[in-house]
């Protein structure tokens, strides 16, 4: 099953609007070097979304996304962000359930599932993050933990993002590999992505259409071997997405379907 790889930058709580716009501009400048058949997106922090989306709107190869949303469409939720507002800004994606939010804001699978469902209903594609801690991996629980997260965090009746317009993207991000420079081995990533695909197959008919991204210390030096794996359909990139050169180099390392 040929799935278009997606290389997505998660800029986290870095950059102000001016620097974010400049980075978006530099990425757009380098896009002609990235093969067609590689989809690209960047997810700036909320105060930077407008500046970034204004910069990239005309370049449909680079899409924008947010890093979180609320499960409600609107209402009395001070400090939160609604999917309707994100859609109006022109976002295509929203990351939900990143391990930093699960940890910092005690987000449960049920919360993540509700956010993903609201995003999907509003026409955004949720990028649902899952991943085990080091302690869970060392206890031999990684696959069971991730399977439970996938079952608990995806909306009901979900489809791959190539299906019925708006589906879901799943990002496997082992917590111990995020921002640590410790990348999971290709063998571990391969095994986990196959396991996630099998879990998805028990949940939906179109499991082979769901893009599975790997995230956790992806860099130009390790991108090609990770992105070459059968069930790795792209990357969710933190630190290395904050420089246009390294982000573009990762995108150029993606296998293309054409
Ligand atoms: P790093 O690439 O900085 O490890 O971050 C990964 C991540 O959390 C992307 O969402």
Descriptive tags:
about 260 residues, alpha/beta, TIM Barrel, 10 helices, about 40% helix, about 15% strand, binds 1,3-dihydroxyacetonephosphate
CATH architectural label: Alpha-Beta Barrel
Give the spatial strand order of the biggest sheet. 1-2-3-4-5-6-7-8
Report the strand count.
8
**How would you sum up the global shape?**
globular
Strand proportion, as a percent range, falls in 5-15%
Describe the protein.
This protein has a single domain, classed as TIM Barrel. Helix content is 38%, strand content 15%. It has helices at 17-30, 49-56, 83-89, 99-104, 109-121, 134-138, 142-153, 186-201, 220-227, 244-252; strands at residues 6-10, 39-43, 62-66, 93-96, 125-130, 169-172, 211-215, 234-237. Helix 8 links the parallel strand 6 (169-172) and strand 7. The longest helix has 16 residues, at 186-201. 48% of the residues are buried. Bound molecules: 1,3-dihydroxyacetonephosphate.
Give a quick precis of the structure.
With 258 residues, the chain is α/β, with parallel strands linked by helices. The chain contains 10 helices and 8 strands.
Note the topology:
Layout: E1 6-10, H1 17-30, E2 39-43, H2 49-56, E3 62-66, H3 83-89, E4 93-96, H4 99-104, H5 109-121, E5 125-130, H6 134-138, H7 142-153, E6 169-172, H8 186-201, E7 211-215, H9 220-227, E8 234-237, H10 244-252
Parallel strand pairs: 1-2, 1-8, 2-3, 3-4, 4-5, 5-6, 6-7, 7-8
Helix pairs in contact: 1-2, 1-10, 5-7, 7-8, 9-10
Bound molecules: 1,3-dihydroxyacetonephosphate.
């Amino acid at each position: 099953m040929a799935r278009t790889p997606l290389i997505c930058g998660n800029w986290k709580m870095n950059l102000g609007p001016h620097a974010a716009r400049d980075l978006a501009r530099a990425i757009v400048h380098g896009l002609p070097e990235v093969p067609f058949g590689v989809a690209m997106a960047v997810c700036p922090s909320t105060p930077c979304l407008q500046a970034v989306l204004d910069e990239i709107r005309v370049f449909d190869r680079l899409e924008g996304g947010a890093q979180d949303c609320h499960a409600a469409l609107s209402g009395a939720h001070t400090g939160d962000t609604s999917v309707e507002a994100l859609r109006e800004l022109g976002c295509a994606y929203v990351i939900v359930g990143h391990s930093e939010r699960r940890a910092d804001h005690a987000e449960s699978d049920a919360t993540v599932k509700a956010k993903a469902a609201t995003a999907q209903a509003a026409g955004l594609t949720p990028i649902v993050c899952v991943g085990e801690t080091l302690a869970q991996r060392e206890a031999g629980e990684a696959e069971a933990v991730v399977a439970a997260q996938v079952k608990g965090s995806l909306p009901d009746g979900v489809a791959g993002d190539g299906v019925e317009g708006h589906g879901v993207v799943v990002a496997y991000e082992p917590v111990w590999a995020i921002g640590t420079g410790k990348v999971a081995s290709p063998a571990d990533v391969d095994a986990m992505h196959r396991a996630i695909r099998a879990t998805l197959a028990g949940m939906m008919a179109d499991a082979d259409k769901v893009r599975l991204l790997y995230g956790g210390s992806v860099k130009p030096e390790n991108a090609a071997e990770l992105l070459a794996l059968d069930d790795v359909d792209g990357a969710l990139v933190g630190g290395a997405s904050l420089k246009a050169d390294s982000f573009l180099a990762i995108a150029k390392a993606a296998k293309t379907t054409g």
